[in-house]
UniProtKB/TrEMBL annotation:
Matching PANTHER family: SI:DKEY-122A22.2 (PTHR43139:SF52)
Native organism taxonomy: Eukaryota, Viridiplantae, Streptophyta, Embryophyta, Tracheophyta
Coiled-coil boundaries: none
Record protein name field: AB hydrolase-1 domain-containing protein
Database matches in Gene3D superfamilies: alpha/beta hydrolase (3.40.50.1820)
SUPFAM superfamilies assigned: alpha/beta-Hydrolases
Species whose genome carries this gene: Asparagus officinalis
Every AB hydrolase-1 domain range: 72-125
Signal peptide: none
Length: 146
């Protein structure tokens, strides 16, 4: 689905963009409200300094997480509390994936959906993201067994 939405043939080409055009596509998929204008030189610098550095390792990582059943997350329930923060307009992983992840993680999983954000709620609404994170971290943890 993601590849169809992006109009891309290969996940590596999309997630590790080698051109400013592909980076613009990726930005369009990751944020709910695309920035009005990003200068070409900023995108070129970003591609060169962020994506080209350690390119081989990034490609290996993308390929590794792309293996397996493309429609199902393979998760094991966790005993510790887990906070999952999700943008309600995430076009990389739609909201139904967040619900499935929460269910698979078990009773200790807490799903928080941030309105009017895409794949990067931490960037698009940092105030709300930080409130959710601090609330989660400041709550009394379950007693640990020593």
């Amino acid at each position: 689905m993601l590849m169809e939405r992006a109009g891309a043939e290969d996940v590596v080409d999309l997630m590790v963009p080698g051109s400013t055009g592909t980076l613009r596509k990726l930005i369009g998929l990751t944020v709910y409200k695309s920035p009005r204008f990003v200068p070409e030189f900023v995108l070129r610098d970003f591609v060169q300094n962020i994506y080209k550095t350690n390119l081989k390792e990034k490609v290996e990582l993308i390929k590794a997480i792309s293996l397996g059943n493309k429609n199902e997350f393979q998760l094991t329930p966790l005993s510790q509390d887990v906070l999952v923060i999700w943008g309600d307009h995430d076009r990389i992983f739609p909201l139904d994936k967040a619900i499935k992840i929460k269910e698979k993680l078990g009773e200790g999983a807490r799903l928080e959906i941030v309105k009017n954000t895409g794949h990067m709620p931490n960037t698009e609404d940092p105030t709300r993201f930080n409130e959710l994170l601090l609330d989660f971290l400041m709550n009394d943890p379950k007693p640990s067994i020593l």
